[in-house]
Design a protein that fits this description.
Elements lengths: L4 H15 L2 H11 L8 E5 L5 H8 L3 E5 L3 H10 L5 E4 L2 E2 L4 E7 L11 H8 L11 E8 L1 H8 L4 E4 L5 H6 L7 E6 L5 H13 L2 E7 L13 H10 L7 E7 L4
Parallel strand pairs: 1-2, 1-7, 2-3, 4-6, 7-8
Antiparallel strand pairs: 5-6, 8-10, 9-10
Helix pairs in contact: 2-3, 8-9
């Protein structure tokens, strides 16, 4: 597939970011090794260039990787290992259908299907160089449909630039372990995601800042404590990922 220069530059930027520093991938594998066991089923929602999909696969997991951006989905179809990974060029949302995806050709990692998130993020310092300069109509499935097709996942990684609440709205039963991105400048989605998971089951929470590949705290906290933590972060604090672990018996 031939790419225009801007899109080719964006893909090269992502590949350099996620594959150009091997020691970071080693740290990522060490971080995930206690969380993912051989034979586990993992949903990678927002697979991007497949860096985490490959690590989950290397740890022995069966992976369902979802990536709606056409350029990235085509790249993954050409380059992902053929055994043990199912690739779906779809978005995930509250209900099945289609979605207008706003794509940044130079920064494809921040493509999003949420106009309000784009407006809010675009006003922050970290996103001022980003232009969402292309759109695509992409198919949408739900977590419930994925579970019906592939089974109940042991871990779900969600990295979707503002679509986290919609994705969790399409889930009707609790799952053992999930992660979702938070952006302190646009934290309403993280609050909504915490609320949705708390409505499904008794969860404990922890977080990772940026790409540090270790939890901020040795102790997992309840939903109220995680809300307070997020509320106290300055708007220019680094983004990161919140991990939600279902308590036994939930």
């Amino acid at each position: 597939m031939s790419l225009d220069p801007r899109a080719a530059m964006g893909l090269a930027r992502s590949l350099a970011l996620y594959y150009g520093q091997p020691w970071k991938r080693i740290a990522m594998r060490r971080f995930y090794a206690p969380l993912i066991r051989p034979g586990d089923l993992v949903f990678d929602i927002g697979a991007h260039v497949g860096s985490r999909t490959r690590i989950f696969h290397a740890l022995g997991a069966r992976v369902v990787a979802l990536e709606p951006t056409p350029m990235l989905a085509a790249f993954l179809a050409r380059t992902l290992p053929k055994g043990g990974i199912v690739l779906a060029p779809e978005a995930v949302g509250a209900e099945p259908g289609v979605l207008k995806l706003a794509i940044s050709r130079r920064h494809p990692t921040v493509s999003s299907g949420v106009p309000d998130w784009i407006d809010a993020a675009g006003r922050t310092a970290g996103f001022r160089a980003v232009a969402w300069d292309e759109t695509a109509i992409v198919p949408v499935t739900t977590l419930d449909r994925l579970i019906a097709a592939h089974g109940r996942p042991d871990f779900v990684k969600i990295d979707v630039e503002g679509m986290e609440p919609a994705i969790l709205a399409g889930l009707s039963s609790p799952l053992p372990l999930l992660s979702f991105e938070y952006l302190p400048a646009v934290r309403a989605g993280a609050f909504a995601s915490i609320d949705r998971l708390s409505a499904l089951g008794r969860y404990r929470f922890n977080r990772v800042e940026g790409e540090r590949q270790h939890f901020v705290s040795a102790d997992w906290c309840d939903a109220d404590a995680m809300r307070r933590t997020l509320a106290a972060l300055p708007a220019d604090a680094p983004s990161g990922d919140i991990y939600a672990r279902l308590e036994d018996g939930s």
